[in-house]
Amino acid sequence: MPAENVPPVEEWVGRTFPPRNRSAASANLFMSHVATRKMDAPVSLLPGILLSAAVAIASALLEPVLKAATGGRIGIPAIVVALIIGMVLHPLANNLRFAPGMTFCVKKLLRWAIALLGLRIALGDIAALGLSTALLVVGSMVATVVVGFVLARRLGREAGMGALAGVATAVCGASAALATATVVPDYRNKAADVAFTVIAMNVVATIAMLAYPLICVWLGFSPQQTGIMLGGTIHDVAQVVGAGQSVSDEVANAAVIVKLFRVFLLLPAVLIVGWWLVRDGSEMTKAKVPVPVFAIVFLGLCVLNSVLALSPAVQPFYGPLRDGLLEASRWGLLIAIAALGLGTSMGAMVRLGWRHLALVTGTTLTILVIVTAGLFLIG
What we know:
Layout: H1 8-16, H2 24-36, H3 42-69, H4 78-88, H5 90-93, H6 99-116, H7 123-127, H8 131-154, H9 159-170, H10 174-181, H11 190-219, H12 223-233, H13 237-245, H14 249-264, H15 266-280, H16 293-308, H17 315-342, H18 346-350, H19 354-378
Helix pairs in contact: 1-2, 1-6, 3-4, 3-6, 3-17, 4-17, 6-16, 6-17, 8-9, 8-19, 9-10, 9-11, 9-15, 9-19, 10-11, 11-12, 11-13, 11-19, 12-13, 12-14, 12-19, 13-14
């Protein structure tokens, strides 16, 4: 594989695992070697995949334990636990033996796990939203992504960080951040930015899950308006469900439909942001946006799920298959985020500073204000 055709994530892994005690010239030769080696050799992939999978399994086991330790009041998602465990184990993972498998998890496994999320969406549910609600959601998402880029520039951050924060806030939190990372051209500290965005999205979404239902009550929203507000503003699907169910089943159903509409827009969001970064590209390494096969598959599975959901005859076969594939997607995302954490230094995270937090806070407030104001306007 020629070095100039190496995807951005693979280049990132080359820098994430630098050789120790080597000169700059030797480091460049080393990175070229890592970037050009074939990633399809099963033996070379195995150590990194096994380490990432072990962290993912540990995080899944710890999630209920941590929730029980707080009396069920506070839950830390497994995806956050996996990222934190991975970063703690970074000194162990900072080894050439693990690099190929971890690259595979972050670059390939991640994309297919995201593609399978299309099975969660039925186009009929999205069509039932109505034109005014759909326009409000789309408008707020566009504004949020734009604000992400603007704030990144104002705060002196990379455009890639603006893309990560904007799309993650606008679409579906951590999963959208990981999907966006696949089309963000490589730059210094990209791995730390991705890791920060994943953690920040989960923290802010958890706060929103607790606070936003109270805001809806204070504003006097109807159950339908409350569902639209929660589904149109909260970052991750799990927190949307939690916030909706804390009010009523009616609110939860409306919130989930709106949220899945945002998830459905992952494909155009990734395509447009990837194109814009390559077009803008002033402070970033030039790179071609990879053909987002995973996003196209995502859209195809949305359509397939919509068709099969209307066919009762196939439900005995399709239902269990769909559940199995969604579970595979969950584990794929968990392993990928574990690999990302293993390749991220705690020190790099600490050095990011307050500007990253201000950026994520800004995008969160943007989508909250626009959706809330829009609900008052459309009634």
